[in-house]
Structures are given as C-alpha cells and as structure tokens.
Design a protein that fits this description.
Interconverts simultaneously and stereospecifically pyruvate and lactate with concomitant interconversion of NADH and NAD(+). One of its GO terms (molecular function) is L-lactate dehydrogenase (NAD+) activity. InterPro entries: L-lactate/malate_DH, Lactate/malate_DH_C, Lactate/malate_DH_N, Lactate_DH/Glyco_Ohase_4_C, NAD(P)-bd_dom_sf, UBQ-conjugating_enzyme/RWD, UEV_N. This protein has 15 helices and 17 strands. By secondary structure, the protein is of the alpha/beta class. Among the domains are: 125 residues, Ubiquitin Conjugating Enzyme, CATH 3.10.110.10; 156 residues, Alpha-Beta Complex (L-2-Hydroxyisocaproate Dehydrogenase, Chain A, domain 2), CATH 3.90.110.10. Strand 16 and strand 17 form a beta hairpin. Helix 11 packs across helix 13. The protein is elongated and about 80 Å long.
C-alpha cells in the first residue's frame, strides 16, 4: 500500500500526459536483502537525439514511500541492443543520475527525472546496436538482466557476504556520505570489528574525486561502496555524515540546505531499514537529529546524535590521566549543545553528607572541571576523531553493551525543557538505541544553560521548512 497514494496518482497522471506511450503495471520487486514487495512500475521509451533520433526503452519502479523516495530506474534493452556502461549506467542497465541522488519532494518529480535522463543520454548514449552474433549471445543473457531489472541483487555485492550467513543476520552498518567524515567513520567502524559489513553510501556525483575512489581501489574486507539506497537494506545502524556544500549566505540558509538534503535521504533510508538506529553526525548535530526524527517517524529512542560523546571521553581522560582526579572522572559528563555552549556535569550522589563539606567538595570539583575544560578547548573535532567516536557508539549499540554515553537525545521533560529539542545527555545505549536516560546531579547553573541552549535551538527549528 502506498503511503502517499494521492501524490503518487498525481505523478502517474502527469507522466501519462507527457509520455502517453508508457504502460503501467504492478509487479513484484526483489530488493538486495531478498525481501519482496509489489510495486507500481512503468515502461516506455524516451526520445533521445544523438546525431540521429533514438527511442531509449526504460523501466521505472515507484517505491511505496514515493514521492519522498526516488524511483529505481533501469534500461530495458531488447535482444538487438547492448548496454554502454558509463557514468550513469552500470552493466546491468541500472541508471544512476544526480537527480536521483539529490531527490527531494516536492522539488523533484518523475517528469523532471525523465528530462534529466534524456539530457544525460544525449551526452552519452546508453545503448548500441548489436551484430547478429552478439545478438544471439545477448538473448541468452537477457533472462539474467531481466532478473536484475526486477530487482535481484547483483553477483558482485553477493560475493562480499561471507561465512555462510544471510545478509539479514549480519551486524551491518551503513554510513551515508562519501566525504572525509564518512570515510573516517567507515575506517574506524571497520577497525573496531563490531560490524560484519560496512556500506558506504556515496550519493554525490563528484565524490570519486576524493577518498571514496581510494577506498574502491584498495578494497577493504567487508566494506561495500554504493550509490544505491537499497544497498543499506537491513542495517542495524545508519550513520549520517552528509553536509550540504552549497553557497548559502546565512547560517539559517546553511542549515536549511542540510534539511533539504535530509528530505531526500531519510525517507529512503527508513524505507530500507525500518528497525535501524539512526546515528547523526551531520551539523548542527542537535538540529539534524531532530530533523531525522521528524522525517523518519522513528521512536525517539532510535534517533540519536553523536553529540558530546567525543568531548565526554576526552574530559574523563583528562581528569583521570592529566589531572589525576580518577574518582571524579567516572561520574563526569559533557552535556548540552555541541560547541562553545557545552557544559560539564555530574551523575551520582554527593560524596559527603554535611552541607558545608558538600559545598567545599563541589567548589573543589568545579575548579578541577574548569581546568579540564581549558585543556579540552585545545582539542578540535577532526574527521578521524569523530570517526573514533562513531565507532565507539556503534560498538555499544551492536553489542548491546548498555554503556552510558553522552549523546543527543530528545530532551523534552528534562531540566524543565518543554520544547522538542535534542541535547546531549548521559544515556544507556543498547541494540534499540537509547534504553534509559541517566539522572544528572541537580545544579541550577547547569539547568539554566541547558534551557538557554534548548531555547536557541528551538527558535532555529521554528524557522526551518521541513
């Protein structure tokens, strides 16, 4: 059943008006994980001028989350046609376009997709005529290609799954984004060894100019690179690292461009991995975690941001190894908003019962914390350091460690915060994300700072268009 039936019907009507030769049907589509679903699809030809005029046969599958997820597109060659593998077409006829990668409703439409398809095919013709002998071989292969166009997974991706397990049983992690942060996360997660398979979803056209190409060249075990959302199917954790690289003029414009990016990503990710934990590392992490929660409609426990996990680990390390305050370190946390407005806080009870001694102990503790914060200020958040933090969090989730981490979680109801905002707070993490929030020691100054952060984040969220 299509979740947005009226919008889907409207799309079909528009396609039918512009391309009356298309035929529509419902057929079974087989995803990469072996699951099947009855999906609307339509076949037809699109006119392409490449010296002469050609009619290029295509087939588009419409996902049940349409129009919030892009169609799956294939060429549909006849017996006397061969596929020209190129920038936008693979050996099995699967079509890859920037329009698909940047899909965002309501800006993106099937008509717009077909127009870009025609434009790209006019630059590089995707099919060619076969000789009679080649046509004979082609007819023998068409049954296999037909299976591919019906969604069967390709041989190459299957061969990367070892150990005799099915992919659905694997501890699989998908990292979305082929930039420096995405690659750092892939390397750190792979090195940690908690995941049986790591998929890097590289969605952008020019990403091959960067480190993604090197990952492909030096193929790491159990790491797959893909531009296809279906490669993320049945992931236990999906890490979001993408950030818009647009020319926005204001901070609000920058954040809005990230929101627009997520509108084309989150529904598709949610469709393929309906029980995943979303782990957000994109900036600003509090706002983008909120956006991910809203767009996915997942329970709040399964949408978390990397938040202050890295800062907390560093803070505890400084207390223990630099300032030799090991007793304090085990209950010390960095919480709140990532960046300059983060604050140190504590869990656990006061060490002394006498009020005067308790005040003295608190003052002493705060002096040590201030010294630790000064050391912490000199530590930037480079891609590789955030990658380590992401690997730490995914390890706790996949192994159900029930370890406490300071992560961005829905803070409504905590510290008298009444708005739907995400802030870093100590949380116990397990297979399904946040199991429980750990109680913080009451501190009016800390609460005031958290409320101030919540207010500014909420004001920004109110200006965004979801």
């Amino acid at each position: 059943q299509y979740k947005f039936r009226d919008l889907t019907i409207e799309e079909i009507q528009n396609v039918n008006k512009t391309y009356p030769n298309f035929t529509f049907s419902m057929n079974t589509y087989t995803f990469k994980d072996g699951s099947q679903k009855d999906l609307l699809n339509f076949s037809g030809t699109v006119p392409v001028k490449y010296g002469d005029s050609y009619n290029i046969p295509i087939r588009l599958w419409i996902l049940d989350s349409h129009p919030f997820a892009p169609p799956i597109c294939f060429l549909k060659p006849t017996v006397n046609m061969g596929i020209s593998v190129g920038k936008h077409v693979d050996a099995h006829g699967r079509i890859y376009l920037p329009y698909l990668q940047n899909w965002s409703h309501p800006k993106s439409t099937v008509i717009g997709l077909i127009k870009e398809m025609i434009a790209k095919f006019e630059e590089e013709l995707p099919l060619y005529s076969l000789s009679s002998s080649d046509a004979t071989r082609q007819s023998e292969l068409l049954s296999y290609i037909a299976k591919i166009t019906e969604g069967d997974t390709d041989v190459k991706s299957k061969s990367k799954i070892g150990g005799g397990k099915t992919e659905g049983c694997f501890n699989k992690i998908t990292v979305v984004g082929g930039g420096d942060l995405g690659i750092a996360c892939v390397l750190a997660v792979a090195a940690k060894g908690a995941a049986d398979k790591v998929v890097l979803l590289d969605l952008f056209e020019d990403a091959a100019k960067g480190g993604t190409m090197d990952l492909e060249i030096f193929a790491l075990p159990n790491v797959e690179i893909s531009k296809d959302f279906s490669a993320s199917a049945n992931s236990k954790v999906v890490v979001l690292t993408v950030n818009s690289l647009g020319n926005a003029q204001t901070y609000l414009d920058v954040v809005q461009s990230n929101v627009d990016l997520f509108r084309g990503i989150i529904p598709a990710i949610s469709h393929y991995s309906q029980n995943t934990v979303l782990l957000v590392a994109s900036h600003p992490v509090e706002v983008m975690t909120y956006v991910s929660w809203k767009l996915s409609a997942f329970p709040k426990s399964r949408v978390i941001g990397v938040g202050a996990n890295l800062d907390t680990e560093r803070f505890q390390y400084i207390l223990t190894n630099v300032l030799k305050a090991q007793v304090l370190a085990k209950d010390a946390w960095i919480i709140g908003e990532q960046g300059e407005d983060k604050v140190p806080s504590w869990t656990g009870c006061n060490l002394v019962a006498n009020q005067t001694e308790a005040m003295a102990a608190r003052n002493s503790r705060e002096k040590v914390a201030n010294r630790a914060m000064e050391v912490l200020k000199g530590k930037g958040q480079r891609s590789w350091s955030v990658g380590f933090s992401v690997a730490d969090l995914t390890d706790s989730i996949l192994k159900d460690k029930r370890k406490v981490h300071s992560v961005s979680t829905l803070a409504k109801g905590c510290c008298n915060i009444n708005s739907e905002v995400f802030l870093s707070l100590p949380c116990i993490l397990g297979t399904n994300g946040v199991i429980e929030m750990v109680q913080l020691e009451e501190n009016p100054l800390v609460q005031e700072k958290l409320q101030s952060s919540a207010g500014s984040i909420h004001d920004l969220q109110q200006q965004l268009k979801l």
